Amino acid sequence: MSLSQDSCGIWQGRQDMQQGQLEQLQQLSDAVHSLPHLTVLSLSGCSKLTDDGVELIAENLQKLRALDLSWCPRITDASLEYIACDLNQLEELTLDR
Fold it and tell me: What residue range is the signal peptide (predicted)?
């Protein structure tokens, strides 16, 4: 299932969803809180994603096994610390630029 800013309401009631692509999504908090069972998440190209957003992901999506943060220019090394501390099940991390 692919989610975009235009389909913001689609994840409500989908708490069982395990994979999602939120590329270029601008409002992340609703998705993160509504989808606690995600195991695969792509945020590729989210140019407004910051370390605060990655912290939100790491704290709330602890079942993630794969995370794509490629082409997210505003994240820093602080994001890696959040990921390392909170995402214990993570097997794959993509950080292409």
Answer: none
Residues of the chain with pLDDT under 50: 1-19, 23-26
Nearest CA-CA partner of 28 in 16, 39, 37, 20: 20
According to the model, what pLDDT value does residue 72 have?
93
Rounded to a whole number, what is the distance in angstroms from the first to the last CA of the chain?
Answer: 24
Half-sphere exposure of 32 (CA within 13 A, CB side): 17
φ/ψ of 20, rounded to 5, equals: -155, 145
Q: What separation in angstroms does the CA of 15 have from each of 21, 36, 55? A: 15, 6, 20
Distance between CA atoms of 68 and 94, rounded to whole angstroms?
A: 5
Query: In terms of Cα–Cα distance, which of 64, 12, 22, 66 is closest to 47?
Result: 22
| 68, amino acid identity | D
Structural domains in the chain, sorted by start = 5-94 (3.80.10.10)
